[in-house]
Amino acid sequence: MMGDLYSGGGGLFRVSMCGGGAEAREIEQLSREGSQYSLSTGILPSLGARSNRRVTLFTVHCAACFNYLLAARYHDKQKTWIGAVMENFTEQSLWVRYVTSVYWSITTLTTVGYGDLHAENTREMIFDLFYMLFNLGLMAYLIGNMTNLVVHGTSKTRQFRDTVQAATSFALRNKLPAGLQEQMLSHLCLKFRTDSEGLQQQEILDSLPKAIRSSISHFLFYSLVDKVYLFRGVSNDLLFQLVSEMKAEYFPPKEDVILQNEAPTDFYILVTGAVELLILKNGVEQVFGEAKAGDLCGEIGVLCYRPQLFTVRTKRLSQLLRLNRATFLNIVQANVGDGTIIMNNLLQHLKELKDPIMEGILLETENMLARGRMDLPLTLCFAAHRGDDLLLHQLLKRGLDPNESDNNGRTALHIAAAKGNENCVLLLLDFGADPNSRDSDGSVPLWEAMVNSHKPVVKLLSENGAKLTPGDVGMFSCTAAEQNKPELLKEIIRLGGDITLSRDDNGSTALHVAVCEGNTNIVRFLLGRGARPDRADGNGWTPRDLAEQQGHDDIRELFDSHQRARAIETAVSAPAEPSRGVRFIGRFRSEPVLLPGPPPVGPNGLWGGPRSRRRVNDFCNSLFGMMSAVGGSAGEFGVAENGKYVARVTVSCPEKGDSAGKLVVLPGSFRELMEIGERKYGVSGGSVLREDGAVIDDIELIRDGDRLVFTSGTN
User: Fold this and answer.
1) Cα of 73 vs its chain's centroid, Å
2) Rounded mean pLDDT of 431-448?
3) Count of CA atoms in the C-beta half-sphere (13 A) of 197
4) How far is CA 48 from the centre of its chain?
């Protein structure tokens, strides 16, 4: 029988403990979390009313289970607290026994004075003693916790009421206008609402380390700031630094964010909502415009350091990012190139507004720039880009490096030459700017002026040492051919460049590029200047191969006709054979006259070394050649001591008033012949014609005694 009682009591105890295990584990976890707080605050505010309820139920449950366990294990069931009122209680159902135990446990805990546990033996007395002592501490615990929760919940409301009362008293005492009083109350109500709803974003960010704060700001606002017109084109580093320093603020409807004519201490970026731009005229506020998400407010006053132009007032609940002027300037000072971009964006924005007020601000800002009174860091590239020679002179006199470059390696001289500003180019050259400086693409100021057809600047740079190196000529010729600009090719020739040279990177020539682009006129021009259709690039492709591969039939025909013309010009015709009345077999060409002087012989009697191809010398077949060979006096008829005749030609230029011509020695290359024309007649980049008007493009086509005519045109 005792075994049955023990089994019944233990079973109830085990079932009850299993039912309360989940609550026990949760209380233990909450207690561990609560231990992280200081004793001054306690764990009570963190647990809250729900935790208090669970602690109470768990205590009642445990007391009921322990009381029943003592009664079930006692040897005399009649002398127990439950046996005294319920005979044969072990025969009752589990539910009846559990409810009875919990009822007396909770009435004892609440101390209502009715149905308390009544100890019948010593064991129960000892347990009830400790249980009631525990109840005293638990009640104090619960009352204190609930009081703290109530006070904590109402403290913000009490503080808000006190703040509103103080603001109202202040407004009445100082007789503030009704509109201003409304703005004060609206702001206080919004602040209370954001605090109560957990929207106090800036307070949370300020409590975090800088790295975490910057990462959060970058995640929330970077994409918005990146689209603002003022920061278009600046570096990612500058944007990241600016976003990290911006403060997010909420403004209720109809609240002034910026006042007209106030000091420019901050400017704002609108995140959500909308604001009105108001201007005061004749004592009446007029709406100048409206700003929406992504727009700026107050930036003109901050950047131009002048009083704010407009009153900025919210139309509805709005969130704005505030950036302090001093912080902004400190960041920009460390990123000079970005400061130039920001100023350009501001000036361009003022021009696009096309408003009389903005036009006046633009004019005033430009005057401040010319006097160097802007706080933003200004560079020579910025002045050159604007074509402001006064500002450029001011900056150069301050000691700025005339060769400073931007992120792309472009100097102020590059920009001034590209824009054709002679005054800026002269200033930079006078202060020691390098006329042959290169940017990251390999471009030089002279080429910038040539591409943009600024001939006075080209002349100015050429006179001050600017030149095109052979490596530049190949690249620039390819660029001119790609852009289908024959005038650029002529300008390169005028400056002494050989447009048949190849690029350094892949061996392509201008003729390769012209064929790929299908520019027939450029191909014809290049062929007339000595370009070779069979010259291979670095990959083994010739212009002729490219024309066939890309199906440019007109260019292939042009190559073929050019080849035939070259063959006709270079062919040497023998005099017609007299008719002898017999069948003519063929035309025979006699051997040229042997020149005096034995050929060099090697040690083994062989020809010493490779022989260069002999150029056809028409003098050997002429009367003078034959006479000199027979007489042996080569020097009398212009034959050099080594047996090679020095050919002579007559050059003239009717355009320059010289029709009679001058007798000169035929140079060794076509380029040297062009230099003779430039030196004697000032003809640069023109053409060389025969007396019958045929264009000559190779020195091999010229014979002794020919009359050559220099012209400035291409035909």
Assistant:
1) 83
2) 88
3) 7
4) 51
More confident call, 74 vs 626:
74
Strand partners, 268: 297, 322
Q: In this structure, is the dihedral angle defined by the CA atoms of residues 397, 399, 401 and 405, taken in order, positive or negative? A: negative
Go through the domains of the chain in sequence order and give each one's CATH number.
45-151 (1.10.287.70), 197-371 (2.60.120.10), 468-566 (1.25.40.20), 648-711 (3.10.20.90)
pLDDT exceeds cutoff 60 at 395 = yes
Q: Cα 97–102–104 angle (5° rounding)?
A: 100
Residue type, 188: L
Highest mean pLDDT out of 312-326, 483-497, 618-632: 312-326
**Would you say 467 and 446 are in contact if contact means Cβ atoms under 8 Å apart?**
yes
Two tokens, residue 574: 């023998």
Cα dihedral 91, 95, 99, 101 sign: positive
Nearest-angstrom CA–CA distance, 195 and 615: 98
125 torsion bin: left (phi>0), alpha (psi -120 to 50), beta (else): alpha
- Cα 706 from chain centre: 63
**Residues 6+ away with beta carbon under 8 Å from 102:** 60, 61, 64
* Helix pair 122-173, 94-110: axis angle to 10 deg: 50
Q: Which pairs from 569-575 meet CB under 8 Å and 24+ separation? A: 569/698, 569/701, 570/698, 570/700, 570/701, 572/616, 572/618
Q: Which of 36-40, 458-462, 660-664, 676-680 has the highest mean pLDDT?
A: 458-462
DSSP-assigned letter for residue 639: B
Give 96 or 632, the one with higher predicted confidence. Answer: 96
Cα–Cα dist 430/389, whole Å = 13
Single out the residue of 680, 648, 676 nearest to residue 664, CA to CA. 648
Residue 199 binned pLDDT confidence (cut-offs 50, 70, 90): low
Q: Stretch 341-361: mean pLDDT, rounded?
A: 84
Q: What are phi and psi of 85, to 5 degrees?
A: -115, -15
Using alpha carbons only, give the angle 647, 653, 657 rounded to the nearest 5 degrees. 135
DSSP readout, 503-569? PTTT--BHHHHHHHHT-HHHHHHHHHTT--TT---TTS--HHHHHHHHT-HHHHHHHHHHHHHHHHH
b vs e for 604-629, b when ≥16 Cβ sit within 10 Å of the residue's Cβ? Answer: eeeeeeeeeeeeebbbbbbebbeebb
Q: How many helices (H) and strands (E) does the chain have?
A: 27, 13
How far, in whole angstroms, is CA 549 from its chain's centroid? 39
Q: In this structure, what DSSP letter does residue 644 have?
A: -
The answer to whether 271 touches 285, Cβ cutoff 8 Å, is no
Residue 305: pLDDT over 70:
yes
What amino acid is encoded at 338 in this protein? D
Q: For tokens 């979390």, name the residue.
A: 33
Distance (Å, rounded) from C-alpha 709 to C-alpha 692? Answer: 10
H-run or E-run covering 11: helix 2-19
Q: Which residues are CB-contacts of 444 (< 8 A; sequence separation ≥ 6)?
A: 414, 435, 436, 437, 438, 466, 468, 472
What pLDDT shows up at residue 328? 92
A 10 A CB-CB count for 536 gives 17
Between CA 421 and CA 429, with CA 423 as vertex, the angle to 5 degrees is 105
Q: Report the alpha-carbon distance of residue 597 to residue 248 in Å, rounded.
A: 97
Contacts of 514 (CB under 8 A, 6+ apart): 481, 482, 522, 523, 526, 543
Q: Which of 260-269, 557-566, 636-645 has the highest mean pLDDT?
A: 260-269
